[in-house]
Amino acid sequence: MTIEKESPISRITIKPEKCTVCRSCEIACSYHFKKEFNPKISQIKIIFDPKSADLRISQENGCDLCKNEKSPLCVKYCVRGALNAEKVE
Amino acid sequence: MDTYGWIGKFLRIDLSKNKITIDSSKKLLKRFIGGRGVGQWLLFDQVSPNTQALHPDNLLVFSSGVLTGTMAPASCRMSIDTKNVLTGGVLSSNVGGHFGPELKFAGFDFLVIQGSSDRPVFLDIKDEHAEIKDASHLWGRSTWETEDIVRKDQGDLSIRVASIGVAGENLAKPACVIVDRARAAGRGGCGAVLGSKKLKAIAVKGTQPINIAKPEKFMNEVEKIWNKIDSNKSVETRRSLGTRAALPFSNELGFMGVKNFQDDYWNPQKIKRVSQKQLNSNFEIRKLACFNCPIHCSHLYRIPQQTDSDLISEGFQLNVDWDFGGKIDITDGEALLKINTLCNQLGLDLDNSSAPIAWAFELYEKGIIGKNDTNGLDLIWGDADVVTTLLHKIAEREGLGKILAEGSLRASKIIGRGSEKYVSHIKGQDSIEALRSDKGWLLGCITSARGGGHLDGAFQTHKTPGAGEPDSYDSKAEKVFWFERFKAIVDMMGVCYFATVWSDKDLIGPDDFSRLFSTATGISMSGNDLMRTGQIVRNVEKGFNTLHAGFKRSDDYPPERFFKEPIVSGPNKDRILSKEGVDHMLDEYYALHGWDKETGWQTTKCLDELELNEVKEQLCSTKKLME
Ligand code: SF4
Ligand code: SF4
Ligand code: SF4
After folding, report:
1. d(CA A39, CA B579)
2. What is the domain-level CATH number for residue A17?
3. By CB distance 3.0 to 4.6 Å, which of A73, B125, B393, B451 could disulfide with B427?
4. Whose CA is nearest to atom 2 of ligand 3?
5. Which positions of chain B have pLDDT values less than 50?
6. In this complex, do A30 and B294 lie within 8 Å of one another by their Cβ atoms?
7. How far apart are CA B349 and CA B177, in angstroms?
């Protein structure tokens, strides 16, 4: 699960159909920015409507692809592989 | 900012006075850590023994754990603690989903609710602020409608709602609280307590941070535990099939009660018919998890309906198979899914509503009740339509449902005619577990403070190292003594029990919790320190039960029928409980606790060791403390 060496990332790819709505990515992202847990400041957002089962995962403009982390934290804690890091070719 | 892990504040809501105050929780949290620990202490401290569960003076505590909302795996849990509607003793109910974390993001560790409103209200909590609002538009609605209306009115899909359905409004004793449509805080009737306070729902939304004392160290611990969970084989099974994966195996081990416990073995053909694989392939649209849970044991289903739109509903746990499969003999997976959905909508606890129904079916089979008693219904095993009708009737407290809504023990006193013989209860609450095969399971259920239930000291012998043979009465007491203290830790941390050594020996244990706790809060506590706090909480609950419900040793026994009727089929055929065996386990268990063997009560010595003066004094003044 851990990417051992730093590899430059070009973007995060999203597969909503795999998402379990666990929101681990949200709190992992808030940790990246402020070493706290707070979905509010997350740059990845899970928006789920339990009534219609519609789900949207949106990546906000503030995402810095986890600069200074070994690997993007949202990807690291997404056990279902709904989020993936695409490496620079 | 000097509080880490915890928020450090709580809300006190007095519904009689329409008053809300914000208070500091730091002192309390240091002693009782959070979740169930805090809830149980507040109940002991603030509810008088002669207060009835449905009286305004009963307290309701909604409490997140110290790790709830953090990156600690499966950190989704919240406890709902109140006086138990069925037993008159304690209740601690536990629920996952997303409500507990959101409460902390809103700036509170817990809520203490007292009094009762004279009109329907809901509590609206947003970022360090709370308001008591009119709920006349929500009263009479299902929990699903309630959640939808609250979110729609405020135009925010991310609001979390805990609510009661019509069952709670009508004070039906099997009523529960539902969170996120499908997550139930069951047993003990906490939904009826909300109903008695005219509190329809609590909505919560927050944007505040949870701070951590040593963030890097905490995340190192998280990563280690996360990897441990991610690579665990049993977790893999749970991910695809949930707790229902265990169904065939647990049937062979004798964990399936059949037809109201006339047997503890369900025909394997029937097990095949309700298999999870089939449900998944027919209806699953998504795997689903509670907040921050890498195990994601749940499933979202879409079931085409003949009439209006498709039914979209979260799938269910193994309990439903015990409750409505084995015990009532329903052999259709889709029907089970629909019953599960209906219970969630009505706000009915699956366990406590299925038990009196199963009991009534047996009475009908034996001719003790007839169509005169059942409002013309034919209670034939396996009939899901009749069960559906009865669930509505229980929630509405109408006809036979009004009697069944009392729980089977009280119902048997209303019906009489020898119906008591077929009741399975522990401390007055319906017992839902099959108890004749695994003696570790048995001892944990009979000694559980909330009146039965396998989520306190009970364990499954076959997956617990050093617990001996399932059928032997030896080596069980020490394990129950261990697991009940451990479960108290788990409930104070706010983590799901499924992520721990209770499920699989390689998952989260006391030392893992010690490291998570210490790095999160900056307060160092070893695994042993935490186990001691677990024991303290268990003793607070025990004291409450003695004072409020008058429980003693004689209340720690299994349902009578398991001493008289053996299992009739399957690999555990002929197993029956022996009084000597149960006594042997209880003697050992009380000795480990330092409780008195004759009465089952606490002693001065054990309470002194735990520095529980308050409990000691109250017991002493009522002459229920032993030397
Ligand atoms: S971590 Fe992955 S599975 Fe969980 S909510 Fe985020 S995207 Fe979905
Ligand atoms: S890559 Fe990093 S910054 Fe971007 S959304 Fe994921 S966790 Fe947040
Ligand atoms: S294991 Fe299942 S019930 Fe427990 S937190 Fe995870 S998803 Fe929820």
Report:
1. 54
2. 3.30.70.20
3. B451
4. B297
5. 1
6. no
7. 8
